[in-house]
Amino acid sequence: xxxxxxxxxxxxxxxxxxxxxxxxxxxxxxxxxxxxxxxxxxxxxxxxxxxxxxxxxxxxxxxxxxxxxxxxxxxxxxxxxxxxxxxxxxxxxxxxxxxxxxxxxxxxxxxxxxxxxxxxxxxxxxxxxxxxxxxxxxxxxxxxxxxxxxxxxxxxxxxxxxxxxxxxxxxxxxxxxxxxxxxxxxx
Length: 187
Known about the structure:
Helix content is 34%, strand content 21%. It is an alpha/beta fold. A seven-stranded mixed beta sheet has the order 3-4-5-2-1-6-7, sandwiched between helices. The longest helix has 19 residues, at 60-78.
């Protein structure tokens, strides 16, 4: 056994949507309270059509490079005050004293997130199901993770995001009490 305490982790799934951005911001705030690090995971799912195992499409590298640029833009837009992390690794950012480790993985989103949340304090996901006018329920990835995750799962909607609340109230100039915490689901 080493003398170092185990690192506390908050895992968050990021897909580039406003809902996942709200979840990432919430995860950063929660991690600062828990003195934990954030592990932000973006999963690229394989295309449905298959190629021969030796065939590589000519555009694959260009598409993956464009996707990398897009997800880098997501990290920057969601985490505007980030700088290089203390570990100085290329995939570690620091946001207001919280280490945010970013990862781009390939596979099925639910399986990858289940693997990454093993040993984590919690898993945070974003959903559009609670926003006004949303007629859909939680998607299949969220449902699978609620059933199988080995840690508490927190599902955040954009209506629960402090940044979204602040931008709405700034224009209306109406005082609003922000929700202090989300309720873990599937414990």
